[in-house]
Amino acid sequence: MNVLLLGASGRIGQRTVTELLNRGHAVTGTSRSGAGNGIDDDEFVAVSGDATNPDDIARLATGHDAVVSVLGPSDDEPAEILTGMISAVIDGLRRADVDRLVWTGGAGGLRVGPETLLIDTDDFPEEWEPVARAAIEAYDILTEADDLEWTYVAPAALIEPGERTGSYRTAERELVTDEEGDSYISMEDFAIALVDELEENNAVHTYLGTGY
Q1: Is the dihedral of CA 137, 143, 145, 148 positive or negative?
Q2: How far, in Å, CA of 184 to CA of 60, rounded?
């Protein structure tokens, strides 16, 4: 598969590049700078692009089989940029005639009870709320794109660099927790979940939670 990866230079992005390449996919990795992060592989190309510009997205996506996004706001950007990004990506994919999109979302919009989202719990960190709210708004925009085969994949409540175990669980629109009630996944295993969904298409038009 020929995959356009948006946000390839970030921590999750770098791990997703590795996962895609190890499975034999060709990867075009985008970032603002176009940095390749030292990846030396004939099936990898690093390019620069503006994820808020639908013209850039259309140009970059043309000729690819699918797009995977691990985009997120940088420290100097407002959280609301997420809605601009997803709108630009949807527009760009339509222009490029690419209909498969796997989008990395946030855990804040996952349910922890019948009527309760993670973001609305007392323990949800206040400093995370702006990005979580913006990610939920981005999901709402994505749900209107019925013409695209999209999947919105969210990590667990806690995601950080760790071990690639090859094991994880998923749940539709629910926070995945372990037997102790903790919600965690390594970036390495989250990259596996992203690429598994890309290959298997088991959760099209679904908000998918991941974790152990």
Answers
A1: positive
A2: 33
CB 35 within 8 A of CB 10: no
One-letter identity of residue 132: A
Could you list the beta-strand ranges (E) of the chain.
Answer: 2-6, 26-31, 44-48, 66-69, 100-104, 111-113, 116-117, 149-154, 158-160, 169-172, 184-186, 206-211
pLDDT tens profile 81-95: 999 999 999 999 999
Q: pLDDT over 90 for what percent of the chain?
A: 92
CB count, 10 Å around CB of 192?
Answer: 21
pLDDT at 34 over 90: no
The total domain count for the chain is 1
Is the pLDDT confidence value at 48 over 80?
yes
C-beta of residue 171 within 8 angstroms of C-beta of residue 121: no
Q: What are the tokens at 176?
A: 């995945």
Q: Are 52 and 30 in contact (CB under 8 A)?
A: no
8 Å CB contact between 93 and 63: no
User: Which residues form the domain of 27?
Assistant: 2-211
- List the CATH number of the domain containing 60: 3.40.50.720
